[in-house]
Design a protein that fits this description.
Order of helices and strands: HEEEEEEEEEEEEEEEEEHEHEEE
Number of strands: 21
Number of domains: 1
Strand order of the largest sheet: 7-6-5-18-17-16-15-14
Shape: globular
Strand content: 25-35%
Structural class: mainly beta
Number of helices: 3
Largest sheet: 8 strands, antiparallel
Radius of gyration: 21 Å
Length: 325
């Protein structure tokens, strides 16, 4: 009997120690929404399933895995649509695809990737996004290319209208940039490095984090990426929140917010995939020439190919980014 009590006590100590270690490793988050800051105070630990990549839901004052919320774009791109239904859109490596297109908002994503062994497609991840909004404003968010990953080194590149934006490596560090009299762009670090929240009043909010493929992920999914690889495929995990989309919004993600959208997804499939790459491909990160584009069209009936003059990418192996006309 005494021996059983000793064993039980040792197990309890081990469990408590494990929980202490887990708590130390898990990230704490707090509310950055100015509308809820007064009612949602303090910090909370991320859930176990997303120990490093959660955000505070300021309305409920609870931390949530942003990859599991409507508007989430993570992994090999795994989407959570505006209707709450999960699907994959693989696209192709080294190409740009339209995620959202509306009369006054257009978001493209640049996909990086590698061909899977014995597969007919690429493994792909979102390396950067280009956002067109409020007329001609162009926002760039991207992950720098690195061979090995160190989360204490910032690898997130940010630019507005071709000009690089640098923020101190401090959680809560912010930049508020006036755009027009009725709207401001606010960028806030949600962690010391590699994570920001970007918001344009009455338009959208984007949560972005740079992550890399870990050896364990590579092993599980057969990516073939090891510690000896020249590229750890740093990429963005994203969560979008939209405030003023029209009923006729399109794009890989945008269409799921449309008034007449009905998901074609087979909910019973192990990996429900949305195709149609030809409808969403664009010529560069700030082009509005995908087949379903609606940007710049007040009546949402015609495409606008005028804003194609700026193409951005992260500098391989270092901080900053490059924009070319």
């Amino acid at each position: 009997m005494a021996a059983k009590m000793v064993i039980a006590a040792l197990i309890m100590v081990a469990l408590l120690s494990a929980n202490d270690v887990l708590a130390k490793e898990q990230k704490k988050v707090k509310c950055h929404d100015k509308l809820y800051k007064k009612t949602c105070r303090g910090e909370q630990f991320c859930p176990n399933e997303c120990a490093y990549t959660c955000v505070m839901d300021c309305k409920t004052c609870k931390p949530v895995c942003y990859c599991n919320k409507p508007g989430g774009v993570c992994q090999d791109p795994r989407f959570i649509g505006g209707d709450g239904i999960m699907f994959y859109f693989h696209g192709k490596k080294d190409q740009n695809f339209c995620l959202v297109s509306d009369s006054d908002l257009h978001i493209n994503a640049y996909f990086i990737g590698k061909r899977g062994e014995a597969m007919g497609r690429d493994f792909t991840w979102v390396q950067s996004i280009g956002v067109l909004f409020n007329g001609n404003h162009q926002l760039f968010l991207g992950a720098n290319k690195v061979s090995s990953w160190d989360d204490s080194i910032d690898q997130l590149a940010i630019a507005l209208d071709g000009k690089s934006i640098q923020l101190p490596n401090q959680e809560g560090a912010a930049a508020t940039l006036p755009l027009i009299s009725s709207s401001n762009l606010r960028i806030v670090r949600s962690d010391k490095t590699n994570a920001v929240t970007v918001e344009v009043e009455n338009k959208f909010m984007i949560t972005a984090r740079v992550v890399a493929i870990t050896p364990e992920e590579s092993r599980i999914h057969n990516y073939g990426i090891t510690s000896e690889s020249e590229d750890c495929f740093a990429h963005l995990e994203l969560s979008f929140k939209f405030y003023s989309l029209s009923p006729r919004v399109t794009g890989v993600l945008g269409q799921t917010y449309g008034a007449e959208y009905r998901s074609p997804i087979n909910l019973g499939a192990a990996m429900p995939v949305v195709g149609g790459e030809a409808d969403y491909v664009t010529t560069n990160l700030f082009a509005t020439d995908c087949k379903v584009a609606r940007f710049g069209s007040p009546n949402n009936d015609i495409n606008d190919f005028s804003i194609v003059d700026l193409n951005c990418a992260g500098r391989p192996g270092g901080r900053g980014m490059v924009c070319r006309r």
